[in-house]
Design goal:
With about 525 residues, this protein is α+β, with helices and mostly antiparallel strands. It contains 14 helices and 12 strands. It is globular and about 80 Å long. The structure holds protoporphyrin IX containing FE.
Length: about 525
């Protein structure tokens, strides 16, 4: 090959920089100026396009679950729910045929702190799964812990305000957290988990997931059962002590994202098994809790975990922003054969997700590749910011963007099967559910903890509670005593000791400085 032709080939292989209009960018080092010392000119399209796009690089952060990591993979069904064919409980297609694979995208997250906050903080972890099924998308938007702080959606904004930094100082303050929780005793069980090592999973691969809220499954006859979903990691479960977390945080505040990314790059694909717990639809007056109360566990001996399939994550995103940041999950996104229950939190959540996503990403957020269904979509939606897809592929009459019509356009789909039509009656009211039982299960959870988990729980609680107003401490101790004698006694003793020799520098897990000193003290005792 001659010098000339090899140079030509080299030139042809180069991928040339262009702007978004497709114009080649021939000068990317210097803005356009009068003479080489300026001043600059305003008609400099390349510069203005470059900088003004840069100025808009961020979309609003999620109001909660700001920091996350994501991965692609698949879900494979066993075709059975426990020993029964899946069709007994649900007609959802993704569960029917043994071995059937459905592509998924998963986003793990922390909850309270912002996009680049340390991944070692004491916080629930989000576990959101988008299944791209043949019937459209199903989102299972869960957390690592199987219960939640509150049971009514009305309280969610207050709860999040209390958990976020002080609006005046912008400093994280455990007094705000415990002020809200002590005044909302239904949170006691969740706080018992969060202040134990379960509040700091070692990474995203070694934690459980749970849909938390109660859903329904519906079969061909339109009959429904209540259902809870749980993910069990095949990698095992690993949680951290406060001290271990501080050690990691001192060196790497991205450790969970890094762990997930590197495992997948190395071909060490993480897997989870999906289980369901099933209960007959109804109020279940025989139980001392309400099946629609998301602050309660469904006891495993009464409602066994039934395996339904497994999920494997085997591909990292190509681009963090396009896939992880712009992904949008919501509890309203169900497929035929899956349904809502009357769980008040679930209903409140279902409005909130798509509402915030229209604000966060825009009215056409469902046209983005990461959120788009994996099948043809035929809506009559029009316009909106950043709309770039046209659904009207119909050759019949693309101008008909309404329904019904004699002239063409899309027609209503056939129902899949018999609708589930629960009968509902009652006065419209604003009341709490009757079976609150706020502390009983927290006592059971405490008794099931191993000794090191109990010790961590007490020392973490003492760290944060000891900087709170005495009235908050008193209320919290009453709840602990109600839950379990040992729990109450150890917390009271810990708080008394802290009071007598309290060192103000040892603010705790939700506080702004290290608690390792206090943890060491608790260990010595
Ligand atoms: C994210 C609201 C309870 C799990 C969000 C977002 C909102 C929200 C507004 C941000 C979504 C976005 O910007 O895309 C609510 C409300 C709740 C509630 C109003 C109660 C009434 C829960 C509960 C769970 C949960 C009980 C656990 C089962 C998640 C997860 C995300 C999230 C995992 C992050 C999703 C992602 O990775 O993009 N929530 N939430 N939320 N929520 Fe909730």
């Amino acid at each position: 090959m001659s010098d000339q032709s090899s140079r030509k080939k080299h030139e042809m292989n180069k991928e040339r920089l262009t702007n978004r209009q497709g114009h080649p960018v021939t000068q990317n080092q210097n803005i356009r100026t009068v003479g080489n010392r300026g001043p600059g000119t305003l008609e400099n399209y390349d510069y203005i396009e470059k900088i003004s796009h840069f100025d808009r690089e961020r979309v609003p952060e999620r109001v909660v679950h700001g920091r996350g990591a994501g991965a692609h993979g698949y879900f494979e069904t066993y075709g059975k729910i426990g020993d029964e064919p899946s069709s007994k409980y649900t007609r959802a297609k993704l569960f029917q045929e043994k071995g059937k694979r459905t592509p998924v995208f998963v986003r793990f997250s922390t909850v309270i702190h912002g996009t680049h906050s340390p991944e070692t903080l004491r916080d629930p972890r989000g576990f959101a799964v988008k299944f791209y099924t043949e019937d459209g998308n199903w989102d299972l938007v869960g957390n690592n812990i199987k219960i939640f702080f509150i049971r009514d959606a009305m309280k969610f904004p207050d709860m999040i305000h209390a958990f976020k930094p002080d609006p005046v100082t912008n400093i994280q303050d455990p007094e705000r957290f415990f002020d809200f929780c002590a005044s909302s005793p239904e949170s006691f069980h969740m706080v018992t988990f969060i202040y134990s090592p379960w509040g700091i999973p070692a990474n995203y691969r070694q934690m459980q997931g749970s849909g938390v809220n109660t859903y329904k499954m519906v079969n061909d006859e339109g009959e429904a059962v209540l259902v809870k979903y749980h993910w069990e990691p095949k990698q095992g479960i690993k949680n951290l002590t406060q001290k271990e977390a501080e050690g990691i945080q001192g060196q790497n505040f991205n450790h969970a994202t890094q762990d997930l990314y590197e495992a997948i790059e190395e071909g060490n694909y993480p897997e989870w098994e999906l289980y369901v717990q099933i209960m007959a639809d109804g109020e279940h007056p025989e139980l001392d809790f309400d099946p629609l109360d998301d602050t309660k566990l469904w006891p495993e001996d009464q409602f066994p975990w039934l395996p339904v399939g497994k999920m494997v994550l085997d591909r990292n995103p190509d681009d963090y922003f396009a896939e992880v940041e712009q992904s949008a999950f919501g509890t309203g996104v169900l497929v035929d054969g899956l349904d809502f229950s009357d769980d008040k939190m679930l209903q409140g959540r279902t409005f909130s997700y798509s509402d915030t996503q229209r604000h966060r990403i825009g009215a056409n957020y469902l046209q983005l590749p990461i959120n788009r269904a994996n099948k043809e979509v035929n809506t009559n939606q029009e316009g909106g910011n950043m709309r770039y897809e046209v659904d009207r592929h119909s050759s019949k009459n693309p101008a008909i963007n309404y329904e019904p019509s004699i002239l063409g356009g899309y027609e209503e789909a056939e129902p899949y099967g018999k609708d589930h039509e629960p009968y509902v009656e009652g006065n419209l009211t604003r009341e709490s559910i009757e079976r609150t039982s706020n502390t009983k299960q927290a006592g059971e959870t405490f008794r099931q903890f191993e000794e090191w988990e109990k010790a961590e729980l007490i020392s973490n609680l003492v760290n944060d509670l000891s900087v709170c107003d005495q009235r908050i401490q008193d209320r919290w101790m009453e709840l602990a005593e109600e839950a379990d004698d040992e729990y109450g006694r150890r917390l009271r003793e810990g708080l008394e000791k802290a009071k007598n020799g309290m060192d103000d520098s040892s603010r705790g897990p939700l506080g702004n400085t290290s608690s390792s000193e206090a943890t060491e003290k608790a260990e010595r005792e």
